[in-house]
Amino acid sequence: MNRLTIRSLKNALMMLLLGVATLTVLLPLVMIFVHIVKMGISSVSPDFFTQIPAPPGESGGGMANGLVGSAILIVLAGGLGIPVGIFGAMYLVEYGGSRISSGIRFAADVLSGVPSIITGMVAYTLMVVPMKGFSALAGAVALALIMIPIVLRTTEEQLKMVPDTLREASLALGVPLWRTSLRVTLRSALKGVLTGILLAVARIAGETAPLLFTALGNQFWSKKLTEPIAALPLQIFNFAISPYDDWHRLAWAGALVLVTLMFVLSLTARFLGRNKYQS
Amino acid sequence: MKLPKGLNGDLLFKGITVLFAFSILAIIALMILEMADQSLPAIRKFGWSFVGGSDWDAVQGIFGALPYIWGTVVSSILALLLATPLGVGTAIFITEIAPKRFGGVVASLVELLAAIPSVIYGLWGVLVMAPWLQQTVQPYLIDHFGFLPFFQGAPYGVSMMAAVIILMIMVLPIITSITKEVLQAVPQNQREAAIALGATRWEMIRMAVLPYGRSGILGAVILGLGRAVGETMAVTMVIGNTPQISLSLLSPGYTMPSVIANEFNEATSALHSAALMEIGLILLAVTLIINVLARLLLWSMTRKTAVGGAK
């Protein structure tokens, strides 16, 4: 064989290997997805959305308290985290010198790599210990800490893309900078900012570890924000490691609902995410 | 919008944005300080023997973190060794080989993989993958490769092997999507030059594309390592949670995040929770170092492109 043949054979072999690698990466997605649908679909019933879990060993029941609990936690965490992220991003875009902005941007990237269980431990020492009890509020603080760097970075990217001419036009008309930022800059970037918020919500909606010792979970309805509260991912975890078949079924149903929610959120984010100033 | 008299809107706005922007730095500082403060009792009592000790006995108040450190290191490194060629290969496939639209579809699917919460990987791992490993894969390995120390023991299903596979699946999307971005930043004229010299497609990738993106790809892999080291739920559900140091991939293990997840709520003594806090502190320090390193590598890559200018 001459050198050319060897080279093109090698080329063909590598192309094949790269294709095989891609298939191997996609395989788990397909397998996990098929399993969740297969196992979950039969247990997603009206009961799932309206009942609280049945006691161990009894069949039936649902995860209504977990769904409501997750919604409450997400709203609280968003209320705490979204303003911090958005205003922080405005600082980077409108005021920050390049050194300081890079530093904060770097810190945000590093913060988003901190394991979420650490965030839970910190929220425990900051909230649970002083308040002398696990609570929805502590869970929301833990989740907000995860949201802040995501919202800040995505908002910043979006605000940066707003053309300076828009700001200049507004400032030239005598509008103060703070109103320009809120009414002109933020408004032009609103879709992109929403995308970031949706992605952050999708991320925290599935977080389990930071809730283990903050929100703790609750088999019943929680009535106060200062009490432990149920959350869908926590319920999936507890039911998955339980020995009961009925609880396994509920866990699969919960997984199906959660994954559907994730996919809807990320598809919506993707759809909204086409920035009008992007080239 | 109208402000009350005497209130300077711009000053107020600047104040709020400064406060919130710097809160990121404050959060990181607070995390380190709180964790260090809370783990002081354990640090004082055990010193360095905490890291080297392998006994963990809450009743007698003896705490050594070595089995957890071992489990974390082994599971993450093995997962990374498996995931790196697959993830980088997929990224190359997406950017260099697949037609643009098809590559985009593959990239979106990989991103969906990243959107699946860790607890769902754990659910699938413990109810589907672990039984399959126990009944099919592990007996086969014991029968045919049982002479190797890595495949000795009984097939439990939940094991170091299960943790490695789950972690591999979970770090794949990170490595793939970041490597993809890195490769997309490689200037087109690099490729054209290689092709013009008569390189095959693979030679072009190996000689013109990969070397250019090397630091960025390394950054992507290290970022994947950070994820693997800190991953909690999925690993806790499949690794078996037994604090032991074993060469066998079939035996159950334990990791630093898992022991925190399992014991933090039930820590009976102040020393026990301080020991768990110290494990958390070590974990925080390691992930901070890993992330800083990875970000620096990725930044050096993007800066190079910015200087090179051509795209």
TrEMBL record, chain A:
Gene3D superfamilies: MetI-like. The keyword Plastid does not apply. Pfam families: BPD_transp_1 (PF00528). It comes from the Bacteria. The chain crosses the membrane at residues 12-37, 71-94, 106-127, 133-152, 189-206, 250-273. Keywords: Cell membrane, Membrane, Phosphate transport, Transmembrane, Transmembrane helix, Transport. It is a multi-pass membrane protein. Residues 67-269 form the ABC transmembrane type-1 domain. It is found in: Cell membrane. The keyword Transmembrane helix applies. PANTHER family: PHOSPHATE TRANSPORT SYSTEM PERMEASE PROTEIN PSTA. Belongs to the binding-protein-dependent transport system permease family. CysTW subfamily. This is Phosphate transport system permease protein PstA. It comes from Geotalea uraniireducens.
